[in-house]
Amino acid sequence: MADTDSLDATVFDAILLGTGFTQTIVAAALARAGKTVLHLDENDYYGGASGAFGVRDLLKWATKIASTSSPSRDASADKIEFQRLVARSYNNLEFHFHRIETGTADTVIDLTTVLQTHKDASVEDRIKAVEDHITAAYATTNSPSKESKEAISSLASWASTPELGATATQLESVSFSQIQLLEEFLKNTRKYNFDLSPKLLYSRGPLTNLLISSGIGKYLEFKLLERTAVYEALTDKVEMMPTSKEDVFVSKALSLKEKRLLMKFLQFAVDYENQTEVWEDYKHAPFTQFVQSAYGLTDKVLTAVVYAIGFDGNDYATTTEGLKSVKVYLQSLGRYGNSAYLCPLYGVGSELAQAFCRVSAVYGGIYMLQHGLDKHNVDKEANKWQSVVDHTGQTLKANQIICSREYLSKEMDEYIEARTLNRNYVSHCIIVTDRSAFGETALCKTLFPMGSLVLNPGETSIRKNKHTVSVLQMCGGTMSCPNDRYILYVWAESANLKTDAKEDLTAAIRKLVHIPGDPLSLKAPAPKQVTATTPAAPESAEESKPAQHLGDALAAEDQPRMSLDQELDMEQVRQEILQAEKKLFEESENNTPVPSRPSTPAPGAPSSTGSSTAAPTKPLSRTAFQKSKSAASLSMDNIIAPNALFTMFYKRTASWPRVPYPIGSEDLKPLPDNLTVVRPINHSLDFEAATEEARAIFEKLCPGEEFLPPTPEPEDNSGF
Amino acid sequence: MESRHGRKKEQAESPEVLKAREEKEAVLVREYLALKDSLKELIESNKRDNDALKVTTALLRKSPDYYTIWNVRRTILKEGFLDNADDETANKIYTGELEFVQENLKLNPKSYWMWNHRRWCLESMSQPRWDKELAMVGKFLEMDARNFHGWDYRRYIIRQLDLKDKEAKDKVLERAQSEFDFTTTKIHQNFSNYSAWHNRSTLLGKLAEDLSAEEREATVDNEFDLVKNAIYTDPEDQSAWLYELWLIGRGMTPLKAGYVANIYKAQLTNTDLLKTIEERSISILGAYVISFHPLEIVVAFDETIEMRNPFTVSTRVEHVAIPLEGEWKATGSDSELGSLWIFQQAPGAVYGPTVEVVIFSDDVCAVRAGSKLPAAVCYELETLNQNLEDISGRLGRLVIGQNLMYDVTKRIGPVTRPDGTLETQVVNPKHRVTSLTESNSLDDRVALLKREISAVRELVELEPDCKWPIQILSTLLSELRKTISIHSTQAKLIDDECIELQEKLITIDPLRQERYEDRRTQLVFDRETLSIIQDSKRFPEIEFAVKQPSNLDLSMRGLTHIPISSYLLHLHTLNLDSNSITSTRFLRNLLNVRRVNLSNNLIERLEGLQHAPSLEFLTLENNMIAKWEDVVAGFVFWGEGKLGRTGGHVKVLLGNNPVVVNEGGEYVLEKRWEDVGEVGVEIQWQSEELRLAEEAILAAGGEI
């Protein structure tokens, strides 16, 4: 990005506002098709609602959301109120740093008195007082560091300003362990990449195919999702599902006959388009009905397996939709290994967004982050969007404007609002744990089917979850957290704001992790005793880490990273032999561990001028062969519950005008023709809807043009 | 769900691609020729230095499959370097070679010569690192779990390691266990892996040695469970079916459970149990005198055998057994093999009132692998009454007849060998072939078979159009049938079901139709000939029933051949009309047959006729005999004996065969032979009208 916010040119073929996932694809496609593109974002990061943050940035983001007051009625109709609209789309935001309930004594610092005495003081004074109070107590036994100071000051400010609402339970006390935890988080802030809207890619889905065909995939690295688990209400158990031929073969949960029925169904699903006679009668019927009546997969386990394979976010899928999704799954299996899903490294959404932005920049797209915008100019007569005015007062013109809803003017936003009848939200929770919730399986998704969870245990009228709760566990291998930590993303669709995110999701979380202070969650693991009782203490004690690092002992074998050109083929296999052998010999000859590849952070954001410095770095070749998981990893027995260290809840608005529209809203004046508003990112597991939307937008804007044709190799293309 | 062998399917090629490839190949051919020239030069130069070695290196990089180059390389290495090298230098050279091979293996993991060169290096080294090799080949199998070179090499390394630990049985077993676990891992990753299953079967045999009966049973169950999971997951995968087949094993013809338990169990030591035995017993159906002057004896077996030693024929003169000179021959022109063996007394030999035929088990060698005569058999033939009229009632033109059989006494148990030693009966009571699934108890075997049958039957119901489960079901049923009496109702039901299964297979897998038809023929034949045989006193062996039918109608049964022609020894009339029989060779064993109807079959050539001495009337209408030579071929005699001196007429109806048209149109061929002793065939042509008239007489039951 240039050091100045002023631009030489102010007229473009297209201006895009917001670097959300969909816009970035459109931007890349437009630039690739030779259009001049200006891409602006008010945020200082890529990805918008699917952005990814380190710890510090996540807390900053949360505080900002919580502190931005939504009503600002005095703005004029053409005003862009980005921050307000962003804040408005997030509800129920709250986060906790949990106290550690291990055997070690934890000192609690009571804050009620100090808060009481400074009740009427100014906010700054109150924070200062609380901070001093904590520091005084903490510093006696702990050596203060830069991070501990920051931690104390953060905690003090959260305790002192409950009106921010960032922490739902008001901090009336702070414990040493909390301070230490926050300190550790802050120290490792760069090791975390928290996704605001976590998702996966099908290894043979439209997005992956697009990444490959366009050559954009070479900017990215992936890991394979290892397993899918489904929660079974009857047994109250989370079970790993056999979701590939190999799994089915090994599975102990399925009887022989069930195995056959399941395989038969899957064989049919691969080819379902040519066997319409089987499913035509069920075309519009629920998929589950087809699976059960037409295929006789009535058994609970089988239903669960088909659900695990076919669920892509839609709880009410018709047979046509369900079969399509099962087919994409099956086609994806085996492309890169024994898994159908890819998980990009360094945070899902922002990495993809940056990859597309990079292509856009290579083809001349101009990028500016942290670029404040003031208002839209619209020709009311012609109902044409004309220009957008930025914070410096520059008027930026273009033939087309593509933006997400947060960049709309007040007036435009009100139109969208008026056209929306049915609301739609996504409840999210981000949890950081100290060990895997799935034993040796590190990278794993779990589904809690609709109606399987009681959201309000103990109350007389039971409420069950109306939508599937999805859980995605990420590990250090995906470069989204340190190696001794795991992130669980929990999310579910929600139809209203009557329940908050916490209520929507807690029932599911309880089945997977121990939430300190929550008696209904899994039991806390017993304190580590191994080193104390084992006679061979000296050696193991040295190796063993503090109790909260227990997760290490169980850390799953890290899956190899993949790049998209690592489709299983013989050529590749031969290459791999070379590497594996080299490694083997190095190991046996020198007996020194081979240093693993240093984790290079993602290349910097492309510059605004699209100069040749944006040349992509090629991912290094690395071992591609997939060590398949043994049968043991299908079992969920004897798994030690992880402790929740940090949780953050929020409920994001995904409402969008759709049938049925509110009565009378047809008469409203529609938005300008040359304005395209991108839908909010949905709750589904994959990016396919967003990818298709981007393609549709591009095809509307540039009819007849090819959508993201392959990018030539950089060396053939030195002109850029 | 996955691409085959992990390879991408090649796309259809356009002419341009083809042309480009041709050009590319032309270059390769030129390169190859140059390669050959340089190799020749190299060999002729007789150089043994570094330069020569470099040439081979370059050549091998290009063409690792050119095995002569490897040989040359080894010669250079040995004569030029290794012979004068000390240990350390030699090891360096070998290590260098190993690295060279390794590098090349990556490009060409399926080249025999490279793996071979590797072995040479390791075997020549003073201290080969076998453990490192094992890890190396493990990596190769991780790349391609189905590379059989890798598996073979792995077994080789294990053998070498085991050899080192010859004394430490624990280590060997531990290694076998870890190898076994390795196959489990590979099978879990992808069970479509012949090599892994095969390796597993070899290891199981090794591991079973140390298992108790209970452990072995648990292991067997576990293996069946594993393979069934594979089969149910993908019934189209053949590798798992083959393993299942191995597990089921081919049972020998079973023995009565009680019999085994009481008599032989005591003798069985642990080592007996370990031997892998693939035996089924051969039955001797009967022995008969077919001529007294000279003495001719026929012995009928239930399958084709080879005679290792001539069966002992002796005559008792005043309680002293004196060997009777003579010659054994099988029927048919190839007298080495046959299911019917005929003894001809040497001219001038004299025999007493009792003649004994003793067949020791090692005299007999079955053509079919795994068959064995379980015990020596002795027949006593009385020769006092030689009044043929009395014996056979009505004589044919030949001095043989179905009733020309003395009631022979069969003796089982110890028989004195000619050298005076006793032959103990070796009866193997085991019911399985694999060392793993053998068991002493027939009940166990039946239980196991029934369990597997019900599992596979369920799969057949789920996958009615998949050929593998049907084939295995048929095999399992046949195995089960071996455990029961041939005349039981259950046996009949099994036969019927098996026949149905073959018919189903013919429709769903037409490519292997002939195979299924042959199997079906066997089953149908077994079913139709049930009245001919019976369970012998020596169950489970079989013998001829006391009362033999003289007619057998096997018309329209879809038979492709006659599986066991010795069964038909006693028949007078055989109707095989409208089948799919292609050969008449089986006629050589039908010593008594008068009339055979083979119309509407697929016969191209007349064979075996000369050994059907009683044959009078053979109908071969609507067959495929096209050449005159093929007709004449049917009349060549062997030997001097009674059988050779046949006389009389054989009428062969050849209507509607190509040969009739070829040889002159509308005539029907009748062949008569009256000549005795010499091979002579007199052919008479008979008009169509006459033939029809004769048929009318025949139909009316009259004689011609």
TrEMBL record, chain A:
It is found in: Cytoplasm. This is Rab proteins geranylgeranyltransferase component. Residues 605-617 have a biased composition (Low complexity). One of its GO terms (biological process) is small GTPase-mediated signal transduction. GO terms for molecular function: GDP-dissociation inhibitor activity; GTPase activator activity. Gene3D superfamilies: FAD/NAD(P)-binding domain, Guanine Nucleotide Dissociation Inhibitor, domain 1, Guanine Nucleotide Dissociation Inhibitor, domain 2. Belongs to the Rab GDI family. GO terms for cellular component: cytosol; nucleus; Rab-protein geranylgeranyltransferase complex. Residues 595-604 have a biased composition (Pro residues). Keywords: Cytoplasm, GTPase activation.
UniProtKB/TrEMBL annotation, chain B:
SUPFAM superfamilies: L domain-like (SSF52058), Protein prenylyltransferase (SSF48439). InterPro entries: Leu-rich_rpt (IPR001611), LRR_dom_sf (IPR032675), Prenyl_trans_a (IPR002088). One of its GO terms (biological process) is prenylation. One of its GO terms (cellular component) is Rab-protein geranylgeranyltransferase complex. It is an enzyme of class 2 (transferase). Its EC number is 2.5.1.60. Transmembrane segments: none annotated. GO terms for molecular function: Rab geranylgeranyltransferase activity. It catalyses: geranylgeranyl diphosphate + L-cysteinyl-[protein] = S-geranylgeranyl-L-cysteinyl-[protein] + diphosphate. Pfam families: PPTA. Keywords: Prenyltransferase, Repeat, Transferase. Catalyzes the transfer of a geranyl-geranyl moiety from geranyl-geranyl pyrophosphate to cysteines occuring in specific C-terminal amino acid sequences. Belongs to the protein prenyltransferase subunit alpha family. This is Geranylgeranyl transferase type-2 subunit alpha. The lineage of its organism: Eukaryota, Fungi, Fungi incertae sedis, Mucoromycota, Mortierellomycotina. The gene is BET4.
